Amino acid sequence: MPVTSLRMPSARPPEVAKIKIKIKIKIKIKIKIKIKIKIKIKIKIKINSQINSQIKSWAGSGCVVRNPLKRCCCFCFLLLLLSAR
Fold first, then answer.
1. Is pLDDT of 26 > 90?
2. Which residues contact 70 (CB under 8 A, 6 or more apart)?
3. Taking the domains of the chain in order of start, what are their residue ranges?
4. What percentage of the chain carries pLDDT values higher than 90?
């Protein structure tokens, strides 16, 4: 009986292997993108919590519009943040 192929009959054809490799690469890329998105969301949450803590620390004793030596209220602090951007 002549040998028609050097490949073992139980091995998958090279076309299938190439397709599986491409699928694995696409899955890895999608996972990396999801990780980057999660990191960006965590950074945004951290920045928002820092801004909220600053607002809480600045809020309370007087308004900067009335008295620049005292801390400003939340509304004035937000106006200052918006004007700084």
1. yes
2. 61, 62, 63, 64
3. 56-85
4. 26
